[in-house]
Amino acid sequence: MKRISGCIKECTNAYLAEIVQIAGKAALKAGSVLRDLYDKPHQIKHKGEIDLVTEADVAAEKIILDILASENPPIGIMSEESSTLGESVPAGPLWIIDPLDGTTNYAHGFPWFGVSIAYAEEGIPMAGVIYSPVQDELFCATTGGGAWLNGKTIRVSTEDSLGDSLMATGFPYTIRQDSTKVIGALEAVLTRCQGVRRAGAAALDLAYVACGRLDGFWEITLKPWDTAAGKIIVEEAGGRLSDFSGKPFNPFLSEVVATNGSIHNELTRILEQFR
Fold it and tell me: pLDDT, tens digit, for every residue of 124-169?
C-alpha cells in the first residue's frame, strides 16, 4: 500500500514491515465498514451507564480479526469487544485492537472516530496504525521506521510553552460517579494553556499530537486498546509519553500524558496532583 510504503522503506526490521502492512490493510477495510454503516440507524447497547457498543463496533472487529487470523494465526489478540485476556501485561506477541474508538461519537453521527491496531511484544508496542475513516487519514509507525500520515513523514510540534499550546483531553466513563479530579485537572490545564479540545477518541488525539496538530494530550482510566498504537506513533514522531508523575508510560497504565516533549515537564507538574 502506497500510504505505508515510506514507513516500510525506513523500517530495518522485515518482520515489522510485514506487520504494519497487515495492520494497515485491516484498519482500512474496517474503516470502510464504518463508513458504510455511518449514516444508517444503529443498534446500540450499553456496556456501562454511558459506555456504548454498536453493530458497527462488532462488524469492524470481525473484519479485523478475520484479516489478522488469516495472515498471522499464532499472534494473540486483545480487542475491546471480544478479548478474553485480562489487562495485565501479556507475554509474547500480541495484537491490541480498538475496532471503533469514539463509539459515542459514532452513535450520535459526530464524525470523529477511528480504528486503532497495534502490534506489541511483551506489552511494548512495536508497530501501530490509526485510521480516521471520515478524514481518510492513515497514521502508521514501526520501531525505528518513523511515523507517517498517508505516506508522508510526520513530526510533533515545536511549541515550547504550555501557555501557547493547544491541548486535548478526554473524560472517563466513570465521570458521573467521581468527577472531582477530572474537572480539577481540566481547570488547572485550561487556565494555563491556549485551549483544550475534548473530541472523544483518544487514539485520534494521540495521532494528532504525533502530527503536530495538538501539542499535548492527557486522560485517565484508559485501556490498552486506546493507547497502544498511539504510543508508538507519538514516539516515532519525536514525542514523549508518561504517566501523570512523569514516569515511563506503557499501554497497561490507566493514565497518560502525551506531548511534543518540550512542554512535557511543565504539564506533568500540573497533572501530578490529580493522579
Answer: 999 999 999 999 999 999 999 999 999 999 999 999 999 999 999 9
Q: What is the pLDDT of residues 111-136, one digit of tens each?
A: 999 999 999 999 999 999 999 999 99
Number of Cα atoms under 13 Å in the Cβ half of residue 114: 28
Distance between CA atoms of 226 and 209, rounded to whole angstroms? 14
Domains and CATH numbers, the chain: 2-153 (3.30.540.10), 162-274 (3.40.190.80)
Rounded Cα distance between 228 and 101, Å, is 12
Report the distance separating Cα 183 and Cα 178, nearest Å. Answer: 10
C-beta separation of 207 from 130 below 8 A: yes
- Please report the DSSP string for 51-79 in residue order: -EEEHHHHHHHHHHHHHHHHH-TTSEEEE
Single-letter amino acid code for the residue at 255: E
DSSP E strands, 122-260:
124-132, 137-142, 146-149, 152-153, 166-169, 195-197, 216-219, 240-242, 256-259
The whole-angstrom distance between residue 47's C-alpha and the CA centroid of its chain comes to: 20
Backbone angles phi, psi at 162, to 5 degrees: -60, -35
Q: Which residue has the cell 500480541?
A: 94
- pTM beyond 0.85: the answer is yes
Q: Amino acid letter at 31?
A: G
Separation CA 137–CA 209 (nearest Å): 14
